[in-house]
């Protein structure tokens, strides 16, 4: 039961036998809709009734709207009709109706037959009746309405538009003579007039199961013309709209139909009846009559409810070019652009993407700025490290000069010995060879000092290599040995027995170790009183993956307040100091993934510990091959 019908029932019960006029209220105009079937029997009728009601209510006039469903397709016979008539006569005895709107041909006939008994004086507006049904009748003056004009040739024309080179149409539906609408009955007579180029196969009357099979294997250049099916062939009722859905599930060719509500149920389209237009037109005529126009002044005419309408999805499925459709065709279900379907969501997504892009641009800009700053810092710290190395070299100049002078002196002395030897009458060749060998090795010693100095002074970009820490420490010790000796400091080494391989920049590491040793020497000199003057460099492996270089001294140790600050740039306690050595050392060690720290030793003096990750040669190889 529709909401209206339910509302109406309540209305009837409440006001039973108490006419409005008796209660002293002014009677609003009344419209009664008589449905031939049942407004609930499919989307076609519900859509039509909704449109009708919407148009009536849009007029804003006080109106009573009633609806009766005659259910004629399912309940027939004189007895049923007589009961209906009596029931309605009783029901509307005290409820005068101004306009009766009939839906369907059967409803129109009953309304005319029963009018004098039940709704005497009411005008009748008919809807959903085909033109041929009206032509056959001589309509009374109080009847008007809009007809619909269904023709088989229109369906064939639509089939031509959908299937280029159409060779066959297959008509499916209830048997022609059992169709409710005369128009469909007449399709049988229209068949011979179909173009001789198009064969017509009549599959009407087949049970739906059989029909579903037949329509699944139709020839290429064919189309299915659908006329209403009301039963599955085995006695069960079926709504025509359901039957279209069933057929569309198996059909291998497009289905042409003529009721718009089938378009979402598998039909590709055709000249479609729009139930909404039918309902709207009928309500429009009823309103004219309520405004005082006589029905006889409104001539019966063909309505506007039949229009070419097609389903976009169907057109895609059958590969139909839209330009081949009849002019003025409406295309339903065309997907609207995403921003029209979901405007709010699209706006949000757009805003998010925009924001994200802005963020990315900002991040890239920031990244570039950082990178530039980093490069600048690195360049500066390289520069600084270089300056620090030069300063160190300056500091070492006395001991370097000493180191170079020693071999040079030895060379000179050996040369003089040679001169003496060659002047002797009995040449002692073997001795001369020995002395020349000494000269050679002293020369080598001197040039090694120079090469080492050159290497240290090189202003090169940091470059990591595989190096062995003990070798590196030994090299540095040679360098600073002179300096230690000059200050009467005993320079010792306690190197690990196992090699300690690290992946590092050798010049930078040398610089660190050298700075630590020179600082240790300075510290001992600072504490002039210290009796033991000793610097020891110790290396060892810690755990499986860390190497440590520790520089011990017997200086004054590190006061608590200095411990953190001495790694800061420009912190120095020395009159000629730059205060950069430890700061550079920390930068270098951190860049190598290591750490540096300083402690006071229990027995006095300080220890500086540098820890570096041991080289994971295998890991690096794997990374490279990955
Ligand atoms: P600089 O040697 O030019 O002063 P550094 O950065 O190498 O610069 O050292 C900073 C300061 O740390 C030194 O001035 C000194 O006070 C302190 N320092 C460094 N090494 C030691 C050490 N072995 N014992 C005690 N103090 C130290």
Automatic annotation (TrEMBL):
Q: Which InterPro entries match?
A: ABC_transpt-TYRBP-like, HATPase_C_sf, HATPase_dom, His_kinase_dom, HisK_dim/P_dom, HisK_dim/P_sf, Sig_transdc_His_kin-like_C
Reactions listed under catalytic activity: ATP + protein L-histidine = ADP + protein N-phospho-L-histidine
Domain annotation Histidine kinase: ranges: 399-616
Q: CDD domains given for it?
A: HisKA (cd00082)
Transmembrane regions listed in the UniProt entry: 342-365
Query: Which keywords annotate this record?
Result: Kinase, Membrane, Phosphoprotein, Transferase, Transmembrane, Transmembrane helix
- E.C. number, please? 2.7.13.3
SMART domains listed in its UniProt record = HATPase_c (SM00387), HisKA (SM00388)
- Family annotation (Pfam families): ABC_sub_bind (PF04392), HATPase_c (PF02518)
Provide the GO MF annotations for this entry.
kinase activity
Q: What is this protein called?
A: histidine kinase
Name the species this protein comes from: Labrys miyagiensis
